[in-house]
Amino acid sequence: MGYAIGTAYVSVDDPADNTAKEWTLLPLTLIHTDWLFGDIRYWSELFYYTAVLDATTNKVGQNVEQYGFRISLQKSLRVTRLWAPWFGVGIGASRVTYTTRHTIDPDGFLLAAYPDREQTSVTLLLNIVSEWPLTRNWDIGAKLEQAIPIDGDISESSALIMLLYRY
Fold it and tell me: Taking residues 88-96, what's their average pLDDT?
C-alpha cells in the first residue's frame, strides 16, 4: 500500500467547443497492490484532483474536479539486467464535475457562459511502474500512465512518484 503525488496533462472533450490542455497537480493517490499469480499483480488506486483549464476566444475554460478508482493488471518484464518494470493495462471509473464553463473575448471579458455539468467517466489505462527498495519494508517508485476515455470526456497523461509499504 502507498501514497503517490504527481502531475497530469489533462484534456477535456467539451460538447460546447475545444478546451485548453493543462498541467495539473495530482495531490492525492492512495495505492494498494498485491500478487495474483506468478509475476502478475493487481494495482489499485483511489485518486482525487482538480484542474483549471483557461478560457480563450475559441476554447472553453472550466474548473475540473475528478475523483475515482483505477485498477490494472501488471506484469513484470525484464528490460535490462538490473531493471524489470511493471507494464500494466486496466480500467478506471471516476466522477467528474465541470464548473464555471465559459469563453472570453479578445479583451478578456466574458463572451459566453455554459451550464455546469457532471458525468461518470470510464477510461482504458496503460501504465508502467518502476520501484526501488529503500529498506526491507519501504520502496519508492515512479509511474507513467495514459488514461484513454471509453465513456466520458476527459483524458490524461500522468507521472507519479510514490512511497510504498510492503507488509
Answer: 98
Rounded to whole angstroms, what are the CA distances from 88 to 51, 108, 109, 133, 144?
26, 43, 45, 20, 10
Q: Name the residue with cell 483524458.
A: 155
Q: Provide the CB-side half-sphere exposure for 31 (13 A, CA).
A: 25
Is 57:105 a contact under the CB 8 Å cutoff? yes
For 76, the grid coordinates are: 513484470
Query: Could you give all domains of the chain from N- to C-terminal order, each with its CATH number?
Result: 2-165 (2.40.160.20)
pTM for this structure?
0.91
Q: How many helices (H) and strands (E) does the chain have?
A: 0, 9
pLDDT, tens digit, for every residue of 57-83? Answer: 899 999 999 999 999 999 999 989 889
Distance CA 49, CA 142 (A): 18
User: Cell for 10?
Assistant: 489533462
pLDDT at 106 over 90: yes
